[in-house]
Design goal:
Elements: E1 6-8, H1 16-25, E2 40-42, H2 60-78, E3 83-86, H3 88-95, E4 106-109, E5 128-132, E6 141-144, H4 148-156, H5 187-195, H6 215-225, H7 249-257, H8 277-287, H9 311-319, H10 339-352
Parallel strand pairs: 1-2, 2-3, 3-4, 4-5
Antiparallel strand pairs: 5-6
Helix pairs in contact: 1-2, 5-10, 6-7, 8-9
Length: 353
């Protein structure tokens, strides 16, 4: 078995050197035994609203410097540059598509079954591709770009990152958007969302399935899901951070008037904040009319204790098979919901209510 360790970066919490040292000191080391992969830096979408926006409130230059410092410290400690796990969308958004990390192997995340897609500017080839979070394997599913012998050599450090796979890529099946192939994980649900005109995608013809959903856009999605019911928005906003000329002013106030959204402290809505998976569960539970439901004594997800604020709503979502959680038995309640998963949630909700 070839195995390795990864570090989920929180770059605005502490220095890169401190996090690299903690990682190496707690299982993130490397040895040239042919069984240990290089240390992995997981740098991606910020799942914690308390830590700022998707880029942790850091500029592209600050982010690049942080990643470089982490990489240099890990290499100084282990003799091996860390592999970097990320998505092309996040890398472009948060590093300015930096091309400064060609010496670091790439672990790319792109959920579909047709190919890893466009890579960030630092790489022309990936080492590992994560193509699914829902199977066929427990947890996230990944594939090595090469042979078994090549993987052993890569783990030993005696071979560079693999050359591009010689086999031609599988043909891309046309899908609803140019970045959603027809054979991608949630193509059916996203196609349904488009057909129902719940979403129109972006002007460039993309859907951006791995991007998070903001709270204002979520209000619009739910309003359209309900068939755009007749509603006259108030002339004065009930939320001090939602101006009357905001794009989704009507939809946000409809959501509040329907009792689906309560906002914060009664007077803010935080429209451009990403909506987390736990709040999404609460929204859908209330949309369904807050049905009578007794949650189980034992949580269906190992990261959602019975004391969680939205334990009832999350358990209800699972009981309705609207959410199946992740392959590792988690729900990841504080992670922003991605646009592809949002499509799946709404598709399953609509089939039941």
């Amino acid at each position: 078995m070839v195995r390795g360790a990864y570090h989920f970066a929180l770059p605005n919490v502490s220095s890169a050197v401190d996090q690299a040292n903690y990682f190496v000191n707690n299982g993130g080391g490397w040895s040239a035994d042919g069984r240990t992969l290089p240390p992995l830096l997981d740098i991606e979408y910020n799942p914690y609203a308390s830590l700022g926006n998707t880029c942790y409130n850091m500029s592209a230059a600050q982010m690049v410097n942080w990643i470089r410092d982490f990489s240099n410290q890990v290499k100084a400690r282990t003799g091996r540059a860390p592999m970097i796990y990320t998505t092309t969308d996040w890398w472009k958004t948060c590093t300015g598509n930096s091309a400064a990390f060609r010496d670091n192997p790439l672990h790319i995340a792109n959920y579909n079954h047709s190919g890893a897609g466009q890579l960030p500017a630092s790489w022309s080839v990936y080492s590992v591709w994560q193509y699914s979070s829902t199977g066929p394997f427990v947890g996230d599913s990944n594939v090595w770009n090469g042979t078994a012998a090549g993987l052993t050599a890569f783990a030993r450090g005696s071979a560079p990152a693999p050359a591009p796979a010689p086999a031609p890529p599988a043909p891309v099946v046309p899908g609803p958007y140019k970045d959603v192939p027809g054979n991608s994980e949630f193509a059916k649900e996203i196609s349904w969302l488009k057909a129902k005109v719940i979403t129109t995608g972006y002007p460039d013809g993309t859907y951006r399935p791995l991007s998070s959903v903001n709270r204002d856009a979520m209000a619009a999605f739910l309003y359209r899901l309900e068939g755009k019911p007749a509603y006259t928005a108030p002339r004065t906003s009930r939320f001090r951070d939602v101006a009357t000329n905001s794009m989704f002013y009507k939809e946000i106030h409809w959501l509040a008037a329907s009792g689906v959204a309560t906002g914060w402290n009664g007077n803010t809505y935080q429209p451009v904040a990403a909506i987390n998976r736990d709040a999404m569960a609460a929204f859908l539970y209330r949309m369904a009319g807050s049905p009578r439901y007794t949650p189980p004594a034992v949580s269906p997800f190992k990261d959602v204790p019975v004391s969680n604020m939205y334990y009832k709503e999350i358990s209800w979502l699972a009981a309705q098979s609207i959410s199946r959680g992740w392959g590792d038995g988690t729900f990841r309640p504080y992670q922003p919901i991605a646009r592809d998963a949002m499509a799946a949630f709404l598709y399953r909700y609509d089939a039941k209510f």
